[in-house]
Design brief:
By secondary structure, the chain is an alpha+beta fold. Helix content is 45%, strand content 15%. The chain is built from 50 helices and 38 strands. 44% of the residues are buried.
Length: 1380
């Protein structure tokens, strides 16, 4: 369409040749009832819309009307109050109409708080902790006397002793939560402040993403991320095709093909000398109305209708072929314009991400339960105190000699009830509020250690490890299941041609030895800089590929058999790479300066075509009928480079790839000057080894056996394999087949089935040409990391959007699947078949275990690896049937007995469902790791989400709890930091509960001897500082820095991680044991002191032991005991640990001595005396030898049993950590290593024995194949019909076809095959000149001179073909376009 010049009539009134009248009047008459929706009648301008005739918001519903009219947008965004939408209605370029429906704007929010909601929401979250709520109630109790003066004080402790710690806890937690949420706000700001081009006032201007609204027309350029869900109106590619990379959305490595409707393409796109350009005037006047489905999370469907005054009919259907989804990326397309239909949180991507949940660790939940248990224990103590107080008041209180009996209450019962509150306040330290402060400090320190770990830094991308939250560190040491994405997480999505075997003798190429150097490929001017190869045999075979002529053999006269063999070998090499260069659907993009790049649908095709290019068979150009190659010649130029000759091959048919065929073929007419196969008619095929083997001329030949062995070797290395084969075709045979192909391709019924039958007829009697092995490059260290993680009893599931073959291949490559595994594949949607296959896995596992157990009991020798291992591979279609048919428990039972599970072709929603299934049914701790937007749902659903900072976006990182640059760092995160964090937090919790029970239970014991009057055994100063200075600093240092084993041992013995999974270091038993230990310590400290001071006189001192002296001695011994205990628990001594332990001990004696000095008293007496002890008490106690005797006696009675128990346990019942620590400090002999292996794994170490892999599909044993090809069906139609080519390229193609037609005879205009080329012309191109003349004479046709041949008919056919936009052949599976 030409650009409209100034003064020309509007484009709507222009009628192109052969087009229907598109004037408003004619459009109205054709449209019928739909014209009232768009133009409102023939009198109005087509640029105006009768909005009253369009659907409006439901005014009849008063609730909906009230919501729409009076509620602000930020409230309407909430799902619970937004009116339910049954249909989306969008009017282009009309904000007023679209805003009536209160659609979401494009603002995306992942943060939890704002300035208004932060304080109330954060306080609500904090008071969900039982301890915080408990202390809040205590504050109210202690403040009662201040509010009601008539009521006496309920405790000898002031309210400040509770208020200050509580405020500190709330403040520290609030600051941490605010810091975390500020980072989320920053990430949201960066995302929402990206810019896209939006049509405003007749031109595209850059607008922030957050300001884009439904109904806007946006323009995306190459490599741009799609800002919202948009309907394509036009694109720069021919026929408004555009290519999308959807790896961020569904994990697939292929590019998807999308295409605008024919009407919008014709109206909004014009071809110029510089290429296609959008028509801004037409886009500005576009008044299209789209009615489509309401926002939903289905990524694979879209239904809608477009009505506008540019259509000849009432409306045109919209499908997913016309929609670009948010999260995709534009590739190999200069620009795309589209209309926004869903924005912000209503896009399909955001619908799949799920809500951001408040994550809490299992230890947090355990602590809440334990706090409740402590509260129950506290209640029991309070009841005992109340009963004791009643007894005391009734029998002893009124006769007490030292204190006058003055009860402020009327009766002893009332006084006892009043003392309930007093005892609760005194014993409140059983639930220490400082516990939560310490936990937050420790977690912050552990997060900083992760951030500063240099071994988790990825220098290539400059990405360090980051902890985005500080509340989940110890959970890293208790993971049971890992759910991983594949593309971008395990793999780099870079395919490399690595190995091949060629010829009937299966000559292997590509095996590399350590001494080999990379080959010099400078002889090839087309070689890519990044391509590296090491096998010189293959390079030399390509350079001198030309066969030796018979006359050369006769002249030589010697060794003819050897030369003949060499000739055929070189011919096979040449034919092999020609197959790679011809059998594909790759397009080529020529750049300025003569350079070019390949645009391939899949990375596999790109790797194969690139390999042919680098070995001297360069794919240089193509059109719908021909492919041009630059083929290396043996002649060498002056510059030392080989010369290249240009050969043009005619592509007669492309037999497209699909998932059932697992192969693709091309029928090629070779040129006369081809050195190996002049004028040959060959069918070239590449595909899965199983499919090629079935169609070989001699399937049981020795050649196939040799090739099969090579394929198995490649498969064991995790390489992606394909087989190549060919056959020669007879002209008559091809003519008959082409007739059948034409009938099948034009059939209106069962076209695909008929085409498949026709393909089967000709794809037979193949001659094996060779095989290829492509490496789908894994990220560095992935196999090693997965192997170590699996040894740590971590169950790894891979959830990917790739095909089953690709997923299985990667599973073997990364060692998730092993050769000794029994792999079961489930791919289908029949519930009965799925249940049968799943139950078969459970039965097989049970039989294997029973056989293993019986053979073990009878001492029968076992295999090297013990029990049989199982793996499950299930497709997304089967998963849908599982979840829809309530088969999740059956699936879970089968998956639980498998060591590895791979789910392929899954959607983001299915990923999230799988994670939730394990969480809810297995009650297991889960971790999800991914790099794309399609992984956000499962990252949010899992207990811990890990994001990979890749090159293609940061959506996963923004939603994650931890992030780094490579999958291999997950090993360090879990086995090192996770295990350390769990160990440290377990020691911390055991110690903290112990020390607080040792501190508080002495208060209860003292109450027995003080008449339950509420007097404390410790002074207020000590009570205030005990959990702040005297006992908290050493345990915080231990919980941040301690290491039971070093980092190398954590990775060397990953079985140590099982301790966290089984909760060995902290559980209910150890919790109770810590409480009992604290109670016993309190009893020893109190009763030894009471017994030693029974006569109230210090030996040699001559003064009485009063209350103040007793409290000082008890507090001093307690401080020594708890700090010595933490010293025994410390396994890694650092300067910080030394300092904190010494500081905590000395602080008590110096602080008490300082505040009891006479110089401080006088003016400050009233301020200090209520808090600290009286003057001179520390000095008198420290001068008495009895105090030191008492300290030594208490320490011996408390600490020595602990030391003795640990020595006995290490000697008689050592655990895993004891063995590993023994290995750290002793010489690591082979004997010690065997002992470690025996203790850790339960069996003696034996070397691995290789097994033949077993793979089951639908319950039947199938051969293990390394086949993987990420191609999709439908791309061949785009190539053969010419829809993938620009008009300029089509003109060149048709000029060539005109020359051939004039040479062979003109063809009837209507004799066009389904693939867009002349069937008769293709047949005549198979004949010699004389045969063609005779054939033309029989048809009554005359030869026409080239110059007199009219190009008008051919060009008009080209335009018709180019404008043909049937959606057949464009599938949503699509494929990745890899730029080489």
């Amino acid at each position: 369409m030409a650009v409209r010049e100034e003064g020309e009539p509007p484009m709507e009134t222009l009628n192109l040749p052969g087009e229907t009248d598109r004037s408003p009047e004619a459009t109205l008459s054709r449209r019928g009832e739909h014209d009232t929706l768009i133009s409102g009648g023939g009198q109005e301008s087509p640029d105006k819309v009768d909005k009253t005739a369009l659907p409006q918001p439901a005014e009849g519903d008063p609730l909906i009307t009230w919501k729409h009219k009076y509620l602000p947008w930020f409230i309407l965004k909430h799902r619970w109050i937004r009116p339910k939408e049954d249909r989306r209605r969008v009017l282009a370029n009309d904000k007023e109409y679209n805003r009536k429906f209160k659609y979401d704007d494009n603002y995306v929010k992942t943060s939890k708080y704002n300035l208004i909601t932060f304080l109330p929401l954060n306080l609500i979250e904090q008071f969900t902790r039982v301890a915080n709520l408990y202390f809040l109630i205590l504050v109210f109790i202690q403040l009662i006397p201040d509010v009601v003066p008539e009521i006496p004080a309920v405790s000898s402790l002031s309210a400040a002793t509770t208020i200050i710690p509580l405020l500190g806890v709330l403040a520290v937690t609030a600051v941490k939560d605010a810091f975390d949420d500020i980072k989320r706000h920053i990430s949201d700001w960066r995302l929402n402040h990206r810019k896209s081009q939006v049509l405003r006032d007749g031109s595209f201007v850059k607008v922030l993403w957050k300001d884009i609204e439904v109904g806007d027309i946006v323009k995306l350029e190459r490599n741009d991320f799609v800002t919202a869900d948009i309907v394509v109106l036009g694109a720069s590619q021919p026929n408004s095709l555009c290519f999308l990379e959807t790896a961020e959305l569904d994990g697939e490595t292929n590019l998807k093909v999308r295409q605008a409707l024919t009407a919008t393409h014709n109206a909004f796109v014009v071809d110029t000398e510089k290429g296609a350009e959008p028509i801004l005037q037409e886009l500005s006047k576009f008044n299209g109305f789209i009615a489509c489905e309401a926002p939903n999370n289905n990524l694979h469907s879209f239904e809608g209708t477009l009505v506008w005054d540019g259509l000849e009919h009432g409306g045109e259907g919209l499908s997913l072929d016309q929609v670009l989804l948010r999260g995709c990326r534009v590739r190999n397309t200069d620009w795309v314009v589209g209309l926004v239909v869903y924005a912000g949180h209503q896009t399909k991507l955001m619908k799949n991400t799920g809500k951001t949940l408040y994550k809490r660790t299992q230890l947090d939940r355990q602590m809440n339960k334990m706090v409740i248990a402590i509260l129950l224990f506290l209640a029991c103590l309070v009841v005992c105190c109340v009963i004791g107080s009643l007894i005391w008041e009734i029998y002893y209180g009124q006769y007490f000699l030292y204190v006058e009996y003055e009860s402020p209450l009327d009766s002893p019962a009332a006084l006892a009830f009043y003392q309930i509150l007093s005892n609760i306040v005194i014993l409140n330290t059983l639930v220490p509020i400082s516990l939560y402060v310490s936990v937050e400090i420790i977690r912050l320190g552990l997060s900083l250690l992760i951030n500063r770990d240099s071994k988790m830094y990825h220098p290539d991308e400059d990405v360090p490890a980051q902890a985005h939250t500080t509340t989940l560190n110890e959970e890293l040491g208790q993971i049971d299941y890992i759910f991983s994405d594949k593309t971008g997480t395990l793999t780099r999505n870079v395919m490399t041609f690595l190995k091949c075997c060629i010829g009937p003798d299966c000559v292997k190429y590509g095996d590399r030895t350590g001494s080999q150097r990379k080959c010099d490929l400078k002889w090839n001017p087309y070689v890519e800089e990044e391509f590296v190869y090491y096998d010189r045999k293959l390079v030399e075979a390509c350079r001198c590929h030309q066969p030796v002529r018979p006359r050369d053999i006769s002249l030589m006269g010697f060794l003819p058999p050897l030369i003949s063999l060499l000739t055929f070998a070189l011919q096979d090499v040449a034919r092999y790479f020609k197959l790679l260069a011809l059998c594909h659907t790759v397009l080529i993009n020529h750049k300025e300066g003569g350079d070019f790049e390949y645009n391939a649908q899949s990375p596999d095709e790109a790797a194969l075509v690139s390999a042919a290019r680098n070995f001297g068979y360069v794919f240089k150009a193509r059109d719908p009928h021909t492919i041009t190659l630059e083929v290396v010649s043996k002649e060498v130029g002056k510059d030392g480079r080989n010369e290249f000759r240009t050969l043009e091959y005619k592509i007669l048919n492309i037999l497209d790839f699909n998932n059932d065929r697992k192969r693709m073929s091309v029928i090629v007419q070779f040129p006369e000057d081809d050195p190996e196969d002049p004028e040959a008619l060959l069918l070239l095929c590449k595909g899965a080894d199983v499919k090629i083997h079935e169609r070989l001329k001699n399937p049981d030949s020795k050649e196939w056996m040799t090739t099969e062995t090579a394929l198995q070797d490649y498969a064991k290395e995790g390489l992606r394999t394909l087989c190549m084969a060919y056959r020669s075709l007879d002209v008559e045979e091809y003519k008959k087949w082409d007739e059948k192909h034409h009938e099948a391709s034009t059939s209106l019924d069962d076209r695909q089935e008929k085409l498949a039958e026709v393909y089967e007829e000709i794809e037979k009697e193949f001659i094996l040409l060779g095989s290829s092995a492509i490496e789908d490059k894994l990220q560095d260290g992935v196999p090693e990391a997965i192997y170590n993680l699996s040894k740590a009893n971590l169950k790894i599931w891979v959830l990917t959007g790739d095909k089953m073959e690709t997923a299985i291949n990667i599973g073997y490559s990364c060692k998730l699947l092993r050769e000794d595994m029994q792999v079961h594949c489930i791919d289908g949607d029949n519930s009965d078949d799925i249940v049968r296959d799943l139950q078969a896995i459970v039965i097989a596992h049970r039989e294997v275990n029973n056989n293993f157990k019986s053979s073990t009991e009878s001492n029968v020798s076992q295999t090297a690896n013990g029990k049989k291992r199982f793996a499950l591979v299930v497709s997304g279609g089967s998963l849908k049937t599982v979840f829809d048919g309530m088969l999740d428990k059956t699936f879970l039972e089968a998956a639980s007995v498998c060591n590895s599970v791979i789910c392929c072709r899954v959607t983001p929603l299915q990923k999230r469902k799988v994670v939730n299934l394990i969480k809810e049914e297995k009650k297991a701790i889960t971790l999800a790791i991914g790099d794309g937007a399609n992984d956000v749902g499962m990252i949010k659903a899992a207990h811990i989400g890990v994001g990979i900072s890749g090159r293609e976006g940061r959506q996963a990182v923004l939603a994650s709890d931890f992030s780094f640059g490579q999958f291999r760092f997950l090993e360090n995160l879990l086995l090192v930091h996770g295990r350390w964090s769990y160990h440290r937090m377990a020691v911390f919790l055991r110690y903290f509960f112990y020390k607080n029970f040792a501190f508080t239970f002495a208060q209860f014991l003292f109450a027995i001897f003080c008449g339950f009057t509420g007097q404390t055994v410790y002074g207020q100063g000590y009570i205030t500082l005990y959990n702040v200075i005297y006992s908290s600093l050493p345990i915080i240092a231990l919980a941040i820095l301690d290491q039971d084993v070093d980092e190398d041992c954590c990775r060397m013995y990953p079985q140590l991680y099982i301790l966290g999974q089984k909760h060995v270091q902290f559980n209910s038993y150890l919790f109770v044991l810590s409480l009992v230990k604290g109670i016993l310590n309190a009893g020893v400290i109190f009763f030894v002191l009471m017994g030693a001071t029974l006569y109230n006189v210090l030996p040699g001192g001559g003064f009485e032991v009063d209350y103040e002296t007793m409290t000082y001695m008890a507090a001093g011994v307690l401080t020594l005991v708890v700090n010595i205990q933490i010293a025994l628990d410390t396994l890694l001594w650092t300067p910080i640990t030394h300092f904190f332990i010494l500081f905590s001990i000395l602080a008590y004696f110096f602080v008490t001595a300082f505040f009891s000095a006479e110089s401080l008293y006088g003016n400050f007496d009233s301020l200090i005396t209520p808090i600290f002890i009286n003057v001179g008490v520390p000095q008198m106690s420290l001068n008495a030898a009895f105090f030191y005797f008492y300290c030594m006696l208490a320490i011996v009675l408390i600490i020595f049993p602990v030391i003795f128990k640990r020595m006995v346990m290490v000697m008689l019942r050592p655990n895993l950590i004891d063995y590993v620590r023994l290995g750290m400090y002793q010489e690591k002999t082979q004997f010690l290593k065997d002992v470690l292996r025996k203790e850790i794994t339960g069996k003696q170490f034996k070397p691995k024995v290789s097994r033949k892999p077993t793979v089951y599909s639908h319950g039947e044993l199938v051969s293990r194949s390394g086949y993987a090809f990420s191609h999709q069906e439908g791309y061949a139609d785009l190539v053969m019909t010419g829809k993938a080519f620009s008009p300029q390229e089509m003109k060149k193609s048709h000029r060539r076809s005109v020359l051939h037609s004039s040479y062979y005879g003109q063809e009837n205009d209507d004799d066009i095959s389904a693939h867009g080329m002349s069937r008769s012309s293709s047949r005549r191109s198979l004949r010699s000149k004389s045969e063609q003349d005779a054939w033309a004479h029989e048809r009554g046709e005359e030869d026409v001179d080239v110059k007199s041949q009219s190009e008008g008919t051919e060009l008009s056919k080209s335009m018709e073909m180019n404008s043909f936009t049937s959606s057949e052949g464009i599938h949503e599976g699509g494929g990745k376009v890899t730029q080489i």
